[in-house]
Amino acid sequence: MNPALPNTTPCIKDMCGSNRKKGGVKVLFCSSEVVPFAKTGGLADVSGALPQALEKEGAEVKVALPGYRSAKAHSPKMGKDIEVYLVQNDKYFDRKELYGTSSGDYPDNLERFAFFCKQTLLLLKEKGFCPDIIHCNDWQSALIPVYLKTNFKDDDFFKKTKVIFTIHNLAYQGVFPQDEFAKTDLDKQLFNMHALEFYGKANLLKGGLVFSRFITTVSPTYAQQIQSVKFGCGLDGVLRKRKKDLSGIINGLDYHIWDPQQDNKIFQKYGRDDLGDKYINKEKLQQELNLPVDRNIPLLGIVTRLASQKGIELIISALNKKMPKLNLQFVLLGTGDEKYHHQLEKIMQRGYKNISISLRFDAVLARKIYAGCDMFLMPSYYEPCGLGQLISLKYGTIPIGRKTGGLADTIIDAQNGFLFEKYSPGEMMRAIMRALKLYENREKWRSLMLKAMDCDFSWEASAKKYIELYGQALKEV
Ligand code: ADP
């Protein structure tokens, strides 16, 4: 059963140990991107929201990220009372981008993030903040648990500190040539297959997975999937070994930012009690995108990076075959791989009246699509958690997703959305057809919309689970 569905209030005890008052836990949250300081993707949103949710649960939280140029313009505070450590080194971080330019990654990324990890530990000592938990995220902070167990292992300051490591997308691992390993300042013995060596290269993420106390990823299904050869990106063996310490905690959605009742960027605000106003959004969106204005024709939308992970092949195949002939309108907003841009441009040139394709990043149009569409498509090949379906649920826009990762954990077929299993255009179209069939029954569709809007994927529930896990780590001496 999905705990976030309505009418199932999860009962989560504060597990931070009996001698520890609720929230007494001291946490350093460590990430290479944090909203509003620096962002390239979803990690930044999580790192902007989760520390605040942990603080609301009573934890004493500090956040560390590299002192990028973009980060320095902000006050080093978050939430009610979260201090933000910007780890400074202008040689490494005073640059326009976080990881590289359009011509490739910065060549000194290993040095930059090894510095970030080690300097973060030194900064904690300098500030006198001794965390119970260091919560690391993705490969850029993966050397922290490695340093703690090696270079810092005799340092009493960190005697009781435990590391929780969260994988946001296993495909990004921080892999560098062997001859760069010395720059980590780690004993060269660690370049072995049980530690950081990975097919003759240095893999920083692997170090994080081997040396952390607990590993989490951003949905329970993805936590299972990454233990298989198919989704393990070469690290499935390492993850299987750590199986009992690996779990999935679904990401939350910040409902202050994503709420159709408070969204100033959409045409007309609406909620579950004035659902009719959603159709004002639909008609205005049709108008803006030059689609025939008709509130009765089903409107299917997608907002996505154009990357193969997102199932773009399935969409292109459907657009080349059946989709334009159906009695529906389809709206796509996306940007990414050039090859998909070309293929989608070709489809645009055919001038279908019921298809609108916008190839750019547009945060405002994205909101109008979430608000104005009847259905939202996410045919991902893999999806660690996924934000789009959580947003669309809140906006009463029924998600149609592939049963993988976080989509499988948040969409329940025929209860708040539609799921299909096999990664094929035919299966995707069958799920769309099932949705179209139900759409014909207005009463049933309305009740599906209400169920979707009542789902609760707030950060509160996820933060409670992290606090519970921290407690479990701290119970050990
Ligand atoms: P990922 O982080 O893997 O790209 P998610 O579903 O977790 O996928 O989050 C993607 C977020 O980025 C969603 O909020 C989506 O609306 C937004 N987004 C993606 N592409 C665009 C775009 N072209 N314009 C506006 N917003 C976009």
**Secondary-structure content class:** alpha/beta
| Ligand roster | adenosine-5'-diphosphate
Strand order of the largest sheet: 3-4-2-1-7-8-12-13
Q: What gap, in angstroms, lies between the N and C termini? A: 34 Å
Uncertain stretches of 5 or more adjacent residues: 1-23
Total count of strands: 19
CATH class of the largest domain: Alpha Beta
The level of helicity is 25-40%
Q: The CATH topology of the largest domain, please?
A: Rossmann fold
Amount of beta strand? 15-25%
| Tally of alpha and pi helices | 16
How many distinct folded domains? 2
Mean pLDDT: 94
Rg measurement, Å: 23 Å
Query: Biggest sheet, in brief?
Result: 8 strands, mixed
What's the CATH architecture name of the largest domain?
A: 3-Layer(aba) Sandwich
The shape is: globular
Summarize the structure.
The chain is α/β, with parallel strands linked by helices and 477 residues long.
Features:
single chain; 477 residues; alpha/beta; Rossmann fold; eight-stranded mixed beta sheet; six-stranded parallel beta sheet; 16 helices; globular; disordered N terminus; binds adenosine-5'-diphosphate
Descriptive report:
With 477 residues, this protein is of the alpha/beta class. The chain folds into 2 domains: 15-252 and 460-474, Glycogen Phosphorylase B (Rossmann fold); 272-456, Glycogen Phosphorylase B (Rossmann fold, 3-Layer(aba) Sandwich), CATH 3.40.50. It has 16 helices and 19 strands. The strands form 4 sheets. Strands 3-4-2-1-7-8-12-13 form an 8-stranded mixed sheet, with helices on both faces. A 6-stranded parallel sheet has the order 16-15-14-17-18-19, with helices on both faces. The chain has a 3-stranded antiparallel sheet with strand order 9-11-10. α3 crosses α4 and α4 (143-149) packs across α5. The longest helix has 19 residues, at 109-127. The model is unreliable at 1-23 (pLDDT under 50). The protein binds adenosine-5'-diphosphate.
